[in-house]
């Protein structure tokens, strides 16, 4: 393997200034599951890998009891999210997604921050967080800024992060009760596979009825970046959630998607699967809301 | 660049100079001659390189050697007792035909060990979920799952014995 120097700055400021002094010869690394694969294959040739492990401090996953916001430090691993009872109970859409990222071995080291910054259209961590209206906190050396996650992605492998900027944490706002979500990573096999399509649905209902007060429909591999189907969301709000209304939302989402042909699957098939899984995930939301109430 | 690291390897305290770009797999196989850990794909897909770091199964082919500083690393060489007594998982893989060519075996056994340490009585679905990142080209997996199940069943028997003993004074 090509040689590189591994730098482990102690603070965010040191990390940013190291990145600035080495310019495009440097690259940040967290769990390294994307970076190392690319370095080994020669796809990228950094002279300096700057580890964020110390600068970002120990990874934090916590709910702020005052605001009800969920804070996920960018170094939190997929495995930590998978095994967290809070995530499983209150953010099932995220649990659905992270438990099928790679293998246990990958999830033990791969971080949520790395998944977002790597920014592939299939990033399984991104879709549920977008459906939850998550916000990304970014450290820019001169201070902190926040970006709505839906606006974080600019293209395959491209985010709004300027060179040297660091994603510090993801904040998920409190969801209106009752609400639940569900995510389907759909591929040819269940494990160790990138999705053909990723579908996340998060619904909030009126107390005691099935009338929808808020809907989020987020799609992976349906466009060059993770996307939301605003048409489908808009359609559902104010309606009773039934198989019929979800079926219609699925059609709208399929129409709005910008799926393409690829080696993994053809556009027409992907479009049909968007329709199928928007409906299925919507029904799962209903089921989960019922279970929570029970 | 090179960095001085201290870590624990199979219970032994280690202190060595490690090149920054070495993977843990390279360190184990090429520098330390511990060839029990295998390299299959080299890219996180096959699990042949699985080792346990601080209790977690990881792919040593993607893990930087410098990152083991301060950590506890277990490889297949560290699993048997000092006198050569096989670990129950090793013994069970031998007895239940969980091994054919053996290339996947160190990774399978270490991934299973990490699972059982965390969850001593996993369901079949949980076993499959935990081993999804370990490929085997020979066995068809059935004898591998059977090998792990046999260890779990033994464990349950042992627990039952303990339960019976603790109940005995009262009856
Ligand atoms: C075998 C295998 C299977 C996989 N399966 C899946 C899958 O099913 N679904 C899926 O979505 N992904 C999958 N991945 C991809 C990968 O594991 C994830 O994207 C992972 O979350 C990346 O996290 P990391 O910490 O390893 O990132 P790294 O490799 O450390 O970094 C990835 C990128 O993010 C940048 N970066 C990391 N952290 C920060 C930060 N805090 N601030 C700024 N920049 C940062 C790095 O510079 C780099 O460009 C798989 C990978 C492998 C090898
Ligand atoms: S060699 Fe590491 S996963 Fe295949
Ligand atoms: S026994 Fe040959 S690869 Fe598993």
Report on this model:
The complex is a heterodimer of chains A (294) and B (171). By secondary structure, chain A is of the alpha+beta class. Chain A has 3 domains: 47 residues, Uridine Diphospho-n-acetylenolpyruvylglucosamine Reductase, domain 2 (2-Layer Sandwich); 112 residues, 2-Layer Sandwich (Uridine Diphospho-n-acetylenolpyruvylglucosamine Reductase, domain 3); 115 residues, 2-Layer Sandwich (Enolase-like, domain 1). Helix content of chain A is 35%, strand content 23%. In chain A, the strands form 4 sheets. A 5-stranded antiparallel β-sheet of chain A has the order 4-5-10-6-7, covered by helices on one side. In chain A, strands 11-12-13-14 form a 4-stranded antiparallel β-sheet. In chain A, strands 1-3-2 form a 3-stranded parallel β-sheet, covered by helices on one side. In chain A, helix 9 runs antiparallel to helix 10 and helix 10 runs antiparallel to helix 11. The longest helix of chain A is centred in the last third of the chain and has 27 residues. Chain A starts with a strand and ends with a helix. Chain B is an alpha+beta fold. In chain B, strands 2-1-5-3-4 form a 5-stranded mixed β-sheet, with helices on one face. In chain B, a hairpin with a 2-residue loop joins strand 1 and strand 2. In chain B, helix 2 packs across helix 5. The C terminus of chain B is likely disordered. The site of one FE2/S2 (inorganic) cluster has 12 residues of chain B, from loops.
Task: Spell out the key features of this protein.
heterodimer, A: 294 residues, alpha+beta, Uridine Diphospho-n-acetylenolpyruvylglucosamine Reductase, domain 2, Uridine Diphospho-n-acetylenolpyruvylglucosamine Reductase, domain 3, Enolase-like, domain 1, 5-stranded antiparallel β-sheet, 4-stranded antiparallel β-sheet, 11 helices, 35% helix, B: 171 residues, Ubiquitin-like (UB roll), DNA polymerase, domain 1, 5-stranded mixed β-sheet, 5 helices, 37% helix, disordered C terminus, binds flavin-adenine dinucleotide, binds FE2/S2 (inorganic) cluster
């Amino acid at each position: 393997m090509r040689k590189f120097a591994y730098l482990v700055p102690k603070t965010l400021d040191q990390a940013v200034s190291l990145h600035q002094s080495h310019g495009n010869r440097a690259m940040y690394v967290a769990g390294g599951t994307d970076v190392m694969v690319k370095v080994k294959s020669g796809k990228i040739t950094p002279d300096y890998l700057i580890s964020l492990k110390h600068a970002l401090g120990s990874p934090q996953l916590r709910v702020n009891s005052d605001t009800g916001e969920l804070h996920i430090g960018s170094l939190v691993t997929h495995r930590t999210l998978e095994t967290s009872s809070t995530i499983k109970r209150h953010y099932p859409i995220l649990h659905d997604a992270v438990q099928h990222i790679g293998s246990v071995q990958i999830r033990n080291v791969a971080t949520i921050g790395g998944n977002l910054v790597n920014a592939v259209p299939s990033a399984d961590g991104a879709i549920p967080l977008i459906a939850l209206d998550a916000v990304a906190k970014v450290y820019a050396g001169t201070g902190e800024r926040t970006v709505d996650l839906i606006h974080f992605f600019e293209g395959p492998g491209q985010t709004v992060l300027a060179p040297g900027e660091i994603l510090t944490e993801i904040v998920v706002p409190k969801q209106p009760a009752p609400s639940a979500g569900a995510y389907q990573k759909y591929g040819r096999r269940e494990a160790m596979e990138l999705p053909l399509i990723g579908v996340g649905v998060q619904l909030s209902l009126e107390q005691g009825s099935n009338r929808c007060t808020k809907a989020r429909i987020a799609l992976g591999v349906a466009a060059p970046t993770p996307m939301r189907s605003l048409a489908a969301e808009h359609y559902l709000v104010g309606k009773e959630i039934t198989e019929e209304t979800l079926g219609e939302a699925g059609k709208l989402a399929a129409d709005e998607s910008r799926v393409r042909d690829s080696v993994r699957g053809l556009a027409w098939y992907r479009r049909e699967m968007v329709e199928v899984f928007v409906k299925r995930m919507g029904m799962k939301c209903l089921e989960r809301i019922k279970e929570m109430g029970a | 660049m090179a960095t001085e690291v201290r870590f624990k390897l199979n219970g032994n305290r280690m202190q060595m100079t490690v090149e920054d770009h070495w993977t843990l797999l390279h360190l184990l196989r090429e520098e330390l001659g511990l060839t029990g850990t295998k390299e299959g794909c080299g890219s996180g897909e096959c699990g042949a390189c699985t080792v346990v770091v601080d209790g977690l199964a990881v792919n040593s082919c993607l893990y930087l050697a410098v990152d083991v500083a301060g950590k506890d690393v277990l490889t297949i060489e560290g699993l048997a007792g000092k006198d050569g007594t096989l670990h129950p998982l090793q013994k069970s893989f031998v007895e239940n035909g969980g091994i054919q060519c053996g290339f996947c075996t160190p990774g399978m056994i270490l991934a299973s060990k990490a699972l059982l340490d965390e969850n001593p009585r996993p369901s079949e679905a949980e076993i499959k979920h935990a081993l999804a990142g370990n490929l085997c080209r020979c066995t068809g997996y059935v004898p591998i799952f059977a090998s792990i199940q046999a260890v779990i069943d033994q464990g349950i028997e042992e627990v039952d014995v303990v339960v019976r003993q603790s109940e005995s004074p009262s009856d």
